[in-house]
Structure formats: structure tokens, C-alpha cells
Queue: 4 jobs
Job 1
Amino acid sequence: CLVEGSLRFDSELQAHGATEDSQVEYDITLCSVGEAKAVSDLSIAERLQQSQACRLRGNDYFKLHDWGQAITCFKRALQILETDDVKDEDLEAVKSDCMLC
């Protein structure tokens, strides 16, 4: 769930004649490699950002009826947010910028 981007059907694919049932091939170039921070080392803002990315990816899988991948992403989104080491003042700092449902 840490990969940026999405795999969804959009108007750009339609413009090239693709339909929702088309097989689309993507060329992906790895630009850099590094170690990801442990969740416990992330700020609350970073946790929210990563959790949101996983949730959105889960939504994309859900729309494709790929229930297993959707559940995996949704679970990961929740795991990123589960912590005992977040201070109340950290939560208050991002509360106005974030709406979770």
C-alpha cells in the first residue's frame, strides 16, 4: 500500500479506445530505492497520509470487485492508524486537515 498512483479505468484510457474489460499494460520505472520508515517512526500526519492512500487503493479494488485485495488494503489502512504512542496535541494539529469516515 505504499506505492503512489492508482490502477483505475479513466477517461484517458477511454480516449485510446480501451473499455472497462480491456487489458492494460503499464511500464513502470523504479527511480529510487530506500527503506521505508517503521510505522512507529511516522508522524501522525504521515500515518494519516499513508492510511488514506491505502484506503483509496482499497476503494479502487472494491470497485473492481477484487474483494480480497480491497480487504487487505482496508486492513492495512487501519493498522497504520492503530497506535498507543500518539499524543493528543499531535492529533489536534492535524484534526482540521483530516476528515475520516
Job 2
Amino acid sequence: MTSEVKEQAVALFKQTFGSEPSVGAFAPGRVNLIGEHTDYNDGFVFPMALHGKVCVVVGRPNDIGTCRVVTSAAVDGEHRYEFTKPSPASPLTASESALWYSYFLGVLVSFDSNRGNIPSFDAAIATSVPLGGGLSSSASLEVATFTFLEQLCPDLKRSDQAEKALLCQKAEHDFAHVPCGVMDQFIATMAREGHALLIDCRSPPTGELVPFNDPNTVIVVTNSNVKHNLGSSEYPKRRQTCEEAAKILEKAALRDCDMPLLESRRDQLTDVQYKRARHVIQECQRTTDAVAALRANDMTKFGQLMYESHESLRCEYEVSCGELDHLVALAKEVDGVYGARMTGGGFGGCTVTLVRSDRSDALIRHIKERYPENRATCFVTTAGAGAAAVSI
């Protein structure tokens, strides 16, 4: 699939600019197996990169002093953007609105801080990561762009992968105005094929690769095709509420809290603050328990924790929706399914289901038959690799 997306990007480049690209890079989308809305609470998350679901950026330097970028996928209708080569005299700055190219521009600033070391260039972007589906299409674009710039400017390549991920996160904060945690950029940067990544999001964040390559088990990702936009949704409100709760509990972050502490201070919290904190505290524990279950190859336990996670996201964190709840319920009806949950920011997007390999087709058929108007789209995946250069 990476080669197909690369071919799409190369074809778009040739069609738009009339020449061949000279460098390129890809970064994967991701699915979070468990650990939702814990990353910005200094907690634990457990994502894996999506094999074959990638964003590819290809390009070459030009001599016109203007950077030109085109994409094959844009939700806002604008497929091409041009700007003066960033420099101290012509710095890139964030706008109030966040369009697809905001992520691209933010990475350019994070990469070189408008110092003028990036040459003017032409670039084309193609992706197979579903947009707005909670599978980190934004971080895959950011990390693919950063890796592309490393090919364009090899003297500026980062040796520290954590630094690279954090710079991409900063780009999303500053230019897309989304106060995201570090999970998406970390997994896109550090993923390894056949592994999930347990990320401790406390600064400085760290990642531990965990084997996830049982041939008898696969992941099915199901897109509800209900779109969401984290920048204008309830996401920032959830983050603020968690910070308020941690302050009342006199801890640096909810990751530092436990249920006895929460219950002892319940009368000091609003009902909403209590529910949000309860989810985060228990979700952190579920995540570490799930890693232990995976190491023991206990898929039944892992799946039960996924169901518990979804119920908490539905009732305590209130970020699910009817379509996601329906998809989880449908998965639960199929023999061979271990567990399912919503994944991503919520309010639409995707579910992730852990299922026996020989029952994935039956699961997909069941969803297609029972989900309203056959609107769900499904794909089977395994744990893929992180960002890298692509040969042109």
C-alpha cells in the first residue's frame, strides 16, 4: 500500500509541476489500542502504526524562491498552496483558521525556525489515512513532512526521534491550534513493524516497544464515516476540565491520582470533573493491564479491557456517539471477537476491534449488513513501521 500511495504522490507531482520528484518520505496513521484521552494527562497510551495506511510527501528543490505544495486529499477544497521560502525576512506565521496546509507550514517552522536553511521546493502529498476518522491523519502528514524535509536538508536531520516527534506536536499546537498530546507523533515516528508502543506521556515522554505479531489475531478498524474536527470540538474543554480536576486534587496531573484520592475529594469536584478524572485514572490502569495481558498472550483479557474502555469513554468522558456505540455492539455479537472500542478523539471516527484472524471477514460482513445504509468502511490491519524515506 505504501508503494501505491507513493505512486499517487509521484503522479500528482509530475502532473502539477511537470518534472520528477527527487526525494520523498512516508509516515503512518495509527490506531490506539487502548489508553484514550490519557496522553495530555501525563498518562499511558498504547497505539500501533497502521500497516499500509500512510501519508507520502515527495518533492524536489526549485530555484524560484517560492514553495509550492499540492495535495490529493483536502477536506476544505483548497488542493494547492504557495508561499515565499521561509526566512528571517519572510517568516511563516500561523493564521487563525486551520486548513490542511497549516499542519505543513507548522512543520516547516518547527524544523528550521524560519532561519532560511530550507530551500524553496515543490511538493506533492498523497495519503491513504482516512481524514477525520481518528486515525491520526494530521500527525501522519506532520511526520511525513518532517521526514521529507530531512531528505531535502540532510544536514538538519534529527538523530533524536523523540525530539522529532515533539517538534511535530509543536507544529500542531502552534499552527492548527489543537492542544494534542504527544501520542500520535510518537507512534508515527517510532513505530516498528510487528510491535505496538507503550508510551509514557509524562515529560520527557518515553516509548517501549511491545511485540504484537500473533498471526492468529488481527485488528479491524471500522470507520463510522461520521467526521469530527478536534480543533472546534469538545476536545479542548475535556483537557481544561482534567487540568482543573488535577489542581483540586493537588497533583501535577491526573496520572498521579488514584481512586481512593479521587473519592476522598469527590465533594470538592463538580460532577463533570469527577467523571472526567475517574475515566483518566481508570484508563491509565486499564492500559498497563492491557500491556501485561498482551505480553501473556491473553487476548480475552485484553478484549475485556477494550470493552471497559469504551464504556468509560461513553459514560464518563462522554466522547462517544450513537454510531460508535452501535459498531461496538455489533462487534460484540460476532464469535471470535475479543474486544472493541472507539478510538481517537471521539464524536465520530473509528472503532478498533481485536479479532481472530479467521473471523475478520465474518465481522466485516456482519457490520456491513447491520450498520445503517451500509455506511461503515472497514479494513484489516496489523502493526506497521514508522516514518522513513521512500526511494524515488
Job 3
Amino acid sequence: GDVYYPTPIDQTEEPHSLLLLAGGIGINPLLSIWLQARSMCESESRDSPARVAMLYSAASSEELVFRDIIDCTTAEMSNFTAGYFVTGPGADRTGRIAEQDVSDKLSELQPGRTVSYICGPPNFIKDMMILLKKLGLDKKDIRYELWY
């Protein structure tokens, strides 16, 4: 796909944070960005994100692939956080990622610029794009992967 991090626009002196929004198997490209951000932070790169947050939604707990890798990072790095959402039926159902969830994460990532990456089913991407714009994120800072 055409989504990658960091882009030339991210390689500035302006500090920034990352918000990654994953729906289902859309976690795949976002995990690469997550791991790249981690590597940048560990090496203290001047272009490193200040903070990184992920909201990850899947139909079942079993479909939250890579959760162990994500949790390992959040346990080891205080500037990385993750929230999980289960949308399918069952005792572990939490529901979809809601406006309040995204708003709370954006607040945690302040102050400064936040760059968001979205990947998942087409309706998930569309809904998250609308939501991010509604919450005031600049269009240039909303990036997404359409692979369907």
C-alpha cells in the first residue's frame, strides 16, 4: 500500500504523536508503523513520535492478532498505549470504537500535532475519517490504507 511512516512531512522539528486505528486484519500495516515508531523511540531519533496510541477492533478476542506484541510494547514503553474492542457476540463484547474513545485518545496525545493512520474494512475507514475530522484533526494528518 501507499501508507508508510515516517513520511517527509513527519520529518520536521515539529513534535508529533501517532493515533493508529485498526479494524480487523487492518492491523497488519499498522503493526509495521507501531514497530517503526517503537524503533525510532528506542534509538531516540529526532523524528520520533512523542506518544503513540492504538485503538484496535476485531470481531472476537481471538481475532485480535498481534496483541502480545502490542502489549509487550505498552509494558516496556510508557509513551505507547493500546485499547481493544470486540464487536462480535459473546461475553467479551465491548462494542465498536466510539467517538468518546477516539476523543479520549486524542486528548491523551496532546499537546501538539497528532497524525492518525486508519486501516480496516471500508466502512470502518470511512467512519473513522468522518470522526477524526469532526474532532478537529487536520485532513493532512489523516492517513488511511484502502486495500479492498
Job 4
Amino acid sequence: MEDVTRELAHRQRIQSIYTKEREDFPSKDAYDDYLEAVEDIIYKLTYNIDVAEAEQQVQDYIRQQAVNGAKAAGSAGTYIPSAGAVVVQPQPVTAVQMDAEGRILPVDPGPMSRDKWQLMAQASGWSEELATQRALQDAFSTIFIF
């Protein structure tokens, strides 16, 4: 029973990644080869045969689909951030700093100049007019007319 449960878990995960249909292939033979490769990966993962190689095949496929999706989206003018059901995350620019207890330390951005603060505020939607409008709205909303 444990083998069946393990196979179902692997099958569900792999089939959520490998989502191509018959229409995506030029011939029936190519589609059959694709299905056979998917079943081989599921079998290897279920019965612990070359697990590292099978996981590497899955990761390579995810990366390839992300590249293909980005190329297709680039030609269509939109960005698709996921490959199948797996979201592809960018690699960190620098190593994450941790303290002795394993907690992530905040990144010290260094001194912030006025220009950096303004750029950051404008990127979040803030403007000088917004502050003025908010101050006027707060001031006039407290006036009671009887």
C-alpha cells in the first residue's frame, strides 16, 4: 500500500509539471516518446532508482519550459513567471546572512540619500501631490457644520 501511495504522490507531482498534450507534438511517435519519458521518471522516483538523475531531468525540463515560456511571452508582449505548476524563482544576487541561531539577518542597504528615498516612494505610488491632498482631506473632514 505504501508503494501505491508513493507512486500516486510522484505521479501527481510529475504530471503537474509535464503538462503537454498531443497537439503540442508534430507526430504521434514524438508524443509517445514524451509519455514514455514521463512514466520512466515516475517509475524511477517511486522505486528509488537513479533518483538524483530523475530529479535532474525534472529540473532541466522546468528550466527549459521557463525559457520557452519566456520566449513565447516575449513575442506576445507579456511575461509568464511560471513553468507549468512550478514557479521559477530567480537566483539571489548575494548570499543570505544568518546569525548564530539560523535566523536571517536583514540586509543593510547603507545610507539612504534623499534621491533614493524619493525614488523608493515614487515606485510605491507616492507623490508630493498625494501628501498634500491627504492633508487637506484630513483637515476638512474634521470640520463639523451645524
